[in-house]
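Q: Hi! New to this. If I give you a protein sequence and the SMILES for pyridoxal-5'-phosphate, can you show me the bound structure?
A: Yes, paste them in.
Q: Okay, here:
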Amino acid sequence: MNLFRRPAPSLDDLILDTAGNDLSSARLMPTVARPPQVFVRGQGSWLWDSDDRAYLDFSQGGAANSLGHSPQVLIKALSDQAQALINPGNGLYNRLQLNLVDRLCEHTGSDQGYLLNSGAQACEAAIKLARKWGQLHRGSAYRIITAGNGCHGRSFAAMSASSGGCDNRFEPQLPGFSHVPFNDLPALHAAVDAGTVAIMLEPIQAEAGVIPATEHYLKGVERLCRELGILLILDEVQTGIGRCGALLAEQQYGIRADIIMLGKGLGGGVPLAALLARGKACCFEVGELEGTHHGNALMASAGLAVLDTVLEHGFLEQVRESGCYLGEGLARLAYRYDHGQLRGQGLMWGLTLSDDSADAVVKAALHEGLILTAPQPNCLRFTPALTVSKSNIDEMLLRLARAFSRVRTAQLQCRKGIAV
Ligand SMILES: Cc1ncc(COP(=O)(O)O)c(C=O)c1O
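A: Thanks. Here is the predicted structure of the protein with pyridoxal-5'-phosphate bound:
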């Protein structure tokens, strides 16, 4: 499974403004396949395009907009902070950065934290921290074992850590990573050797199609790391900050990593990520991790607003309740349309289809005013706002049913055409 190859934009994807002018000659590098609509505003679970057409958004910027589009709490935090101080620079302290790291450590039981701008940066930082720890405690060991079909980001180190290593169009990759099948403890045992410094995993593999680790597996991985004295790194970029119905997915599994990567939902839609470390893993020193916008006060204010909201009494319980409602609705629909397996937790669900029609369904859904993503050719992913309502879910299911019907009809017509 190649997690990085997505189809190139096609001629269908001409960008037209409301006057019908073709904007596709714009100088944006065509690295991402996008539909032709241009989006101009959002509110909660809804987005509007430049023709003022409304779309129900069950992607939310790839699970980044944890509180939905433009929530009041984020608007207020960002505008208050923008008035006070946007960016003193990473070489100076700012109160927001200190507060957010404090709050994250307090609520996750971590000892140290650091703020960055993306999940890939958190991954880079986790790799650096593990290698530094290896230099100090494991006789210069630096190899990190990761799982097949895992995805940790698109920078060089993150690509190399991800499934199948670095995309072969960009060889050579960063050395020092081994990939073993996910949910396979014997394979992991066999792969660990004296050169191993850490095991890095997603509790639920997001890009692979929302594939959860089994509890037996993650507990076994934790035990293995403790026995061998190596680090456990959990990539909670997508699963963290309430997405799965707890602040961290590791809490639901009853395990404790040494290093945690956070991103996406932490900023509620602004670029913010975090690296958390516990106990022996806290070994970074001055000069070993820096970035111009790391700990940016404006971004940190967004993180604090999101974290405060997610930690409000009843919020996570509501995520679990909405998640069950969504899961049940999707299961009913999958049964009706003869689609396959449903996997997920909280408000992160993946539905495996009976064929490779996921891209066609995403396109048909867009036609029905519904935004979804397809991490795999046969899989749809649902990552709505954590604040999604039951009526939003009901409306989504109606639109998805219409999209399934559209695709079925097109498939039948196509088959008839071939038969003729
Ligand atoms: C589990 C996981 N880790 C890391 C990343 C990389 O995050 P970013 O795109 O913010 O660099 C992603 C992005 O999809 C992800 O799903």
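A: The chain has a mean pLDDT of 93. Let me know if you'd like me to explain how to read the tokens.
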